Amino acid sequence: MRPDLSQPASQFYKTQRARMVQLLRERGIRDERVLRAMNEIPRHLFVPEAIAAKAYGDYALPIGNMQTISQPYMVARMSELLRVDEQSTVLEIGAGYGYQTAVLSSIAGRVFSIERLADLARAAQANIRKIGCYNATVKWFDGTIGWSEHAPYDGILVAAGSPDVPEPLVNQLAMGGRLVIPVGNEEQQTLVRIVRTEQGIVREDHEPCAFVKLIGRHGWSS
Fold it and tell me: Partners of 193 in the beta sheet?
């Protein structure tokens, strides 16, 4: 979709955000804090400028380096499944251009994000600062190892598909913490939520999904 040149670009994008959020409601997203964040965050600033007008469509978009920004529904669904609040500390694996990071920063207290590609890590850090997000930080590293310095985490969100659940991430969950991750083969995964309880680890399988591969020591090798 091309911007309507009869209205200012800011109004065009505001209208598109409202339509996106309405679609998310229709698809079953109920967490009002997630919906509010996605209604406020300028998603078009988190994609290459050439495709900014497509930013609010409910599909993934390429951001270079064979990576994508997740479709809005999946961003909302994974954020909702985390069930975090302003007291929560969250770890994100796979920052991309920083959009999911920005959403998490709006619903959690602190966000630590890891991106394995240096160019994307720098872009994500710049993008979240551009919109005034200062309770999140992005590091260039192998996300499958986690970030033990700030553990334990109330929520861990992995924005890439893994052949299995990386053990280091499970170990960095706080008691009662939740890990949301796509698990499966290279083409198709299932959205999985891991909950750490006093009795042990509980696994819940949710809907099918398709993400780029989670590459690292405890993910895909390449």
Answer: 180, 204
- Concatenated DSSP letters of 64-86: ETTEEEPPHHHHHHHHHHH---T
pTM attached to this predicted model: 0.94
Convert the pLDDT of each residue in 149-200 to its tens digit: 999 999 999 999 999 999 999 999 999 999 999 999 999 999 999 999 999 9
CB atoms within 10 A of CB 98: 30
Give strand ranges (E) for the chain: 61-64, 67-69, 89-93, 110-115, 136-140, 153-158, 173-184, 189-197, 200-209
* Helix, strand, or coil (residue 159): coil
- The CATH number covering residue 153 comes to 3.40.50.150
Cα-based angle 61, 67, 73 (whole degrees, multiple of 5): 45
- Please report, to the nearest 10 degrees, the dihedral formed by the alpha carbons of residues 168, 173, 178, 183 taken in order: 0
pLDDT beyond 80 at 7? no
What tokens appear for 199 in the block? 């009795």
Taking the C-alpha atoms of residue 124 and residue 115, their distance in angstroms, rounded to an integer, is 9
Q: Which domain holds residue 179?
A: 9-209
Query: CA triplet 23, 24, 29: central angle to 5 degrees?
Result: 145
From the list 70, 105, 106, 162, the catalytic residue is 70
Domain count, the chain: 1
6 is a catalytic site residue: no
Task: Look at residue 33 and tell me if it is in a domain.
Answer: yes
